[in-house]
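Internal ticket - ligand job 704, beta-D-galactopyranose:
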Amino acid sequence: MKIIKAKILAIGLFLAIININQVSAQEPYFHKADLIKTGVYYYPEQWDKSQWDRDLKKMADMGFEYTHMAEFAWARLEPEEGKFDFDWLDEAVNIAGRHGLKVIMCTPTATPPLWLTKKYPEVLLVKENGLTATHGGRQFFSWSSAKYRELTERIVTAMARHYANNPNIMGWQIDNEPSHYGEEDFGNEVKAHFQQWLKAKYQTVEELNRAWGTMFWSITYPSFEDVALPNQKTNIAEVDPHELLDFRRFNAEECADFVRFNARLLKKNIPLSQWVTTNFMHFHDRVDPWLNDKDLDFITYTMYPVGGGYTNVGGLGNQGFRIGLPSRMAFPNDFFRYKKDFTGVMELQPGQVNWGLYNPQPYPGVIRAWLWNSYVGGCSIACSYRFRQPLYGGEQYHNAMIGPDGVTPSVGGLEYSKFMSEIKLLRKNFSPNTPVPANYASRKVAILWNFDNYWDTQIQPQTDQWNPEKIIFKYHAALKALGCKVDFVSEDMDISGYKMVVMPMYQLLDEKLITKLTQYVQAGGNLVLTPRTGQKDRNGHLWEQAYSNMIKPLTGARVLFYDVLPVNVNGSVTLDDKSYNWKDWADVLEPQPGTETLARYTNQYYKNKVAATLRKWGTGSVTYIGPDTDDGKLEKDIIKKVCVYAKIKAVELPEGMILDWRDGFWVAINYHSEKTLTVPIPANAKVIFGQRELKPAEVVVWTE
Ligand code: GAL
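stdout (structure tokens):
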């Protein structure tokens, strides 16, 4: 009772402090007037102690406001089982404090020490090929291991108690990029957890057999204990897709459970003034960061826009590979603000990296541009990975804020300093309660997202060109190119406040969702549906109906069939005399009376058949886009039409431009590496930095 009272009192006091400082209720940990706080990682254990003071002073002199410590330092913090050594870290935290730097403390569980893995090898992850992970890298432990949880509890609790009353600690990061980098764990404890998870989900094994369609190929299970993990490496033909879908869901929940476990340990021991987060990878298809939205005070992400050669790392113009795609920063900002109005970029690329297929120099100025993008997209913190370039270890060629000599700021370091001094100036121009401009408010739209669709379409892609990551990026990019403010939302959320909701590849749905969407449209909402929508139920079974029958009452159109093409064949589509190409996927439509045709296929044997439809519902509408085009331009042009119908004041931005608004400030960024772009700044605007004619990687900030 006493404890509860004390907690209530503490919460009251905390909220009172918040009020005094005029922090918005949604942002209890950050002052709105600070706009964004900038920091950088420091690993004191990797440097000679005699350099700590020099380094941390330099960090503060460069304009950083906080640092980040202890990530990966388990071997130093608990050199022997149960024996903790915080002295060195205390000293580093104190030096930081002396230089006016706050500290984000990080739990070190991503890198267990050797004594641990040697004595308790059962904590190690088992890879799909049956090999047990070995010591020496990171993230090689099992989220499901009871022993690992026990050892985690000990170190995390010890750290939390030790730093709970330290005024230099601003918040906590749990682990590092929880993901296992895409590996799934096939260990015995995982199997036992999976079986328990299935029991809780299906109650009876008959129900599981029905949901997984195990009559197919005599897979039938007599008991939950007979279910093995779906391992493609130990199977000859395809593993059961329904089991695989459940395994993906389970894997994401197992990760979330590990994060939750840590968050609870921290929160039990630290004061309310220290926040708790973790840094998810910008978009990782084996975990679902949203599962932790209630456990963490906010979710942060890590972002490296220019690590050459990977999907979605490209760019516009011949130097685009140094700049990154225009919506590359905007995507995680929007995705990780989930259910909150802020997020943070916990790691942002400092310069050249070491892990890309090739690792080019970023374009001069672009690091500052990414920082501005993180600010305007809703980040309360932007933190660079890392302060000093490592002299040894796996990331020697990874740039940092300071070069290998330990004292000379890198190009990225100078760009950070510039940004930080600009933010200081911007803080002076901040005026609280500036209303959201009407045109920007009208552009608030949502993307309805559920990882099930990503996983299910990935499990049965139907073409090796199917790339769910590209599709979600494409739709998001289309909305950003129209100047929209995009929120990612889930099915449990109220969508009635959005004039438009886009549902990328929403293959799995049920009647409850269809009812929700129907009510949304009847109330004047505008729904944009895309290839593969509604083909299956939540177990991933096709409906016992014609394709698309489930959504036909909404769309007023049938999907006759879908097509996919070889990589060297172009499918073509026309909309208002403009032509577009596709090859990954095309739903071929047949509109019912009353449904308008927007676009048609112009080649293949179904030439002239319908590619996109619009059904008006009073002031609302349902649009169906059939093809997944190569460059997403058809999708953008159709969404533009829906904007007109929905009275959304979209702006057609020049290709490569990002335009957004936050806290009274408009920010425009040029991501086109070859073009100077003209920014639509109104005549009465007050420009704070930059110019209307925006050169590549340049930024302009203004108020109206
Ligand atoms: C991140 C990781 C960091 C560092 C960085 C290098 O994915 O979280 O610890 O390795 O990559 O770019």
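Auto-summary: Confidence is low (pLDDT under 50) at residues 1-26. The longest strand covers residues 578-591.
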